[in-house]
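Lecture 7 notes: from sequence to structure.

We start with a single chain of 385 residues. Read the sequence below before looking at the structure.
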Amino acid sequence: MGSILPDLGGKVNQEVIDHIDRLPDSLILLIFNKIGDVKALGKCCVVSKRFHSLVPQVDNVIVRVDCVISDDGPSATSSSTSASLAVVHKPRCPISALFRIFSVFFKPLQSLSQLIAPSNRRLSLSEDVECDSDQNSVTHHSPTQVLKNFNEIKFLRIELPGGELGLDEGVLLKWKANFGSTLDNCAILGASSIVHIVNKNCESPGTSGSNDNPNSNITGAGETDNGSIPESFYTNGGLKLRVVWTISSLIAASARHYLLQPIIEEHKTMESLVLTDVDGQGVLSMNKEQLEELRVKPLSASSASKRTLVPALNMRLWYAQHLELPNGVILKGATLVAVRPSDLPKKELIGSEVNWIASAFEEPFETAARMLVKRRTYCLEMNSF
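Now the structure, written as tokens:
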């Protein structure tokens, strides 16, 4: 019996050993940085005192916003949206139409400001950012509040629950904007509809047939081989719709930029910031130099709403009535717009310029952008707004 007791004692001693305690802090931080998600890190924070002290040192953080709280009822939003769609297709008075559309986009952007703007209330890392149908019984916390307890953020990604721009079903609109203290550049890709070819050996109606060469120019009915825009594009509202897409994307980007200012100011160690949405509609990106520029040179706010003032712009536009991609997808009314401030020197569209425009989008849309920039270029200018 005496020979058994030491064995039992040995088993007891082995069971109480915590192997996680043997891991160095650097390895645990590496794991936390791989996790990234602020909710998951909040749960890790309550596991132990050691984890609680290490979580604030995480330098790679992802904030996934669950909901955007609006003061307006659903009826007001739906009526405004329907009004905007009516205006888009109305052929007369384009300037007044644009102002009406701006008012529609301002409401969801204003709701977004409630979510990202700082508040007097503070959130501990162990609390979740969540919401449900009963808004009176749930406390909502902004990303600014959640990030207060992180001391060494270098890489921050914020994901919104959806894009700000309401689009008709089947319409493609994607944008990516780079900001410093103001807009550095923006690439916008749109299409009136997307068609998927089931059998690439058969021609799809309205297309010139299958083509596997991504460097070729695909033409459609009414469009010349040199990539010229057909006359109907100007008379049937096609150009006006593209202008609306461009301005709406720039407004959404400048509103996101404006709302990020308190986060950028508070976290001096930040080297990369991305604000995107789960729909993949828009991406705002800032690198280390651009973040530092904003801290040194404050942004210029628009007098009309809570967003950064968009400077005077030079724009390049490429258009294809039908653009067939190598994977069998056809973009109808494909349009690519590259935007840069007009006070920057104009650059030839070679090398890095082409890569910047195309790399703004993920495949298959990167291929679409590379195909479009080979077509005829149209130049436009826009005043500051």
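Residues 192 and 354 are 23 Å apart (CA to CA). Keep this in mind for problem set 3.
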